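Subject: mismatched residue count in predicted assembly?

I count 969 residues in my input, but I want to confirm that the predicted structure covers every chain. Input:
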Amino acid sequence: MSGSALDRRTFLKATAAGGLTVVLSSALGAPTARAADRLRVYVVVVDGTRPDEVVPALMPNLAGLRARGAWFPSARSLPVMETIPNHVMMMTGVRPDRSGVPANAVYDRAEGVVRDLDRPSDLRFPTLLEWLNATGRTTGTVLSKEYLFGIFGERATHRWEPFPVVPGSGHAPDVFTGDALVAMVDSFDPDLVFVNFGDTDRVGHSDLTGTTLRAARRAALANTDLQIGRFVTHLQQTGRWSSSVLLVLADHSMDWSLPDRFISVDAILRARPDLRSSIQIAQNGGADLLYWTGPSGARSAGLAEVRRLVAAHPGVLSVQVPADLRLGPEAGDLVAYCRAGWRFTDPTPVSNPIPGNHGHPVTEPIPFLVAGGHPAVRRGVVLSAPARTVDVAPTVGALFGLGAPPGGYDGTARTGAFRP
Amino acid sequence: MNPLSRRTALQLAAVTGTGLAAASVAGPAAAAPSSSRRMFGHGVASGDPLPTAVVLWTRVTPTAASTPGSGVGPAVTVGWEVATDPRFRRIVRRGSARTGPARDHTVKVDAGGLSPATTYWYRFTAGGTTSPVGRTRTAPAPSARPARLRMAVVSCANLQAGWFTAYRHLAARQDLDVVVHLGDYLYEYAPGEYQARDVVVRPHDPAHEMVTLADYRRRHAQYKTDPDLQALHALAPWVITWDDHESANDAWSGGAENHTEGAEGTWAARRAASQQAYAEWMPVRYTAGGRLYRRLRFGRLASLSMLDLRTYRDRQASSMVDPALDDPDRTLAGPEQLEFLLDGLADPAVQWKLVGNPVMIAPVRFPSTLDGDALRGIATLLDAPVSPSGVPYNVDQWDGYPAERARVLGHLRDRGITDAVFLTGDIHSGWAAELPADASTYPATGDSVGVELVCSSVTSDNLDDILGTPPRTTSLAAETGIRANNPHIKYVDLDSHGFSVLEVTPAGVQMDWFVLVDRTHPDSGAVWSTSFRVPAGSGRVEPAPRRLA
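Triage response: the counts match. Full output below for your records.
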């Protein structure tokens, strides 16, 4: 953080239920006095959860919200089915060719490195957070992952910086995220809070029993569900429930591979040093983004050859150009997807040993439900509309009566979840 | 119930204000005035509903000599009318069509200019007489999101094996948007060759195996004189595909088990004859030699891809150890149809991807622990070869084309496709099964890429018939063994005959199975047997708490 950024914010320390201190930062001059019964919206992301996991045996609280709210069984994540781009789509309502955020990891041509898109400047489209702030409302972000905190930066009125962060995973466990969410609501009561619970994803990635028992995953699901149940109870006990709308969804799903089911584009191209030296690879688990860095005169033929070689691998589902997936130039020149039960590991065969991955089409189906005590929420309905992560911003925007952003939304307001 | 008493009952229903929809279709042609009965003795039908068009069908008999398959009789102009009310006070479309002996005096009209999701009534006129009235319904608009779709699902109706009371019970329903027939609408056999156990309930006409064009036409005509079949055709539009018996048993692209090349002419000529008669006699958007596989849409709620798994398939393997089973290029659907299927499954604009799938796609491994009689009975039921240990293996269904099945199931899994439902007939038994994403991990994960729901036969023999045992006795052990050996199979009934009703909503799909008390009795009752549901997005089948209301 720069010094000037520090100058524009204040800090608040709240004590969580477990006795730990939650630190929240806020923009200076944020509005404070607002009506108690105004609309409150909570966009809750259960990171990496599959729709078939939202069942009473695994996630009783979520299953209950689903049964008492509006459920979209055909909901899907959008390319690339990774955390950062889908959270950005939720908050902007536009696809990556307009936001500039196509994947978690990209090859930054200017800096010559593969890096995460975790800087505020990486996101080039205004977000729902800023639009709401501009109307005099307040917003909050409670994002468990460091890179999400990074890219959304200071866009929300009130922010929680994930803490404590698990070494290696870069995220705060859900119990702390749950504490921070409660503290955020109690301290500032924002009109919109954007929450990410990261445990189900992080545990899913590392679950060595992913292809069979999913023992660790199931435990994580139960714990995340507990946090959501706790939050709902808190809203009820503090009198906020009847004015609350919860939009609960995942950013992507999860797929598991056996240790030997990997694809290394690096290994594929090693037999062709001319091509290998002209390609940079940004590995995103179930998808590889490939960037041509060789001579421009050889680009067209070289990419055609790379495409042919990569597509021939039995674990590769498809190789496409980014524009076909509505990804912009940040996604490079080719996007390779793997099949279910496979993963990419680049730049080396040991770069990605983790069994749980996403980014490939099998991980598109996501849970997506609207619940809450607000009278506008329809109860117990199931809708065939193909809801997508990019629909969150237009849906929430419509609830607050916001107009469309410049150029319009790419998503659709899922008004079927609400009474007319 | 005889046709006249049924007619009376319907009229009474109309008078009392109940059952208006059923009362407004004329039902069996036999109940019509004699002049209409002579001219339109094969009833009326509709099919392949689109949002603004539906196929209307009838057959005229302008002279006594113009019998089906005769090739004699004058050319005739037949008028047709479509109205929004059963008394034809608001006629919205009308026209005329010419027919004659070249098409066996059948009439098929693709009536366009209609409104989506609308119930219509239609009738034909010829020689100063009017046909029975049929009711039909257009499909919802492409962008519509219907709250519900109800369809009858039927297959395997062997006239020699019983009465079509299954059709009668369906025709009495008020809730059907469409009737899906998955094939074996008629059978090719001569009297005595294939019937109800040893009893020919109703002999086939002509009294020999159908081989020539005239034979196929006559057999189609015989079936179309059945009053129950006529009533169900007149009630709702049908969506139909063929399986093998519309041409000959276990047909493939180059022949059939029940075809003797030479003695019965060439397979090419026989198949062409069967296809011509099919095109003439069925309310389907198909011309002989063309493409039968096609896709219908019901708004954004569902698509229905109807497959033809006979015309393009490679010959069945000879056994479960036949090296052909390992050939990655062997095909059941043919490459073009396979792409058509995969494209339809991947359509993101539609929630439920229904597939009219003539033969079973779920893998089935029959347990070797069954007693010898049961294994032999199953082999007979499936017309399947047996392994050296006596275990049958159905090489005629997707099990016989494993590489192509792997492509379909892999496509569903790799693309994260949800809500794919295969609706299947062919094997004269009721099944509900999941389609494991990976057979080796399925017992632990339960991950399934879709489901399969199989309706029983309208009349055709199944296991108890083959074993000569009472229903629901000896087959129970076989069913238990099959389920134990195939954890993805949640329901199997190898004995019952009847029909299914399928409901499709955004929340789920449910199939109710109804079974006939006695298919050989012309007044057989039908009772609800069981129901299974597929919650949206789950890829799972589970017992439904209750039958459809």
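Chain A touches chain B at residues 51-52, 71, 73-74, 76, 211-214, 253, 317, 339-341, 360-365, 382-386 (CB under 8 Å). Marking this ticket as 'not a bug'.
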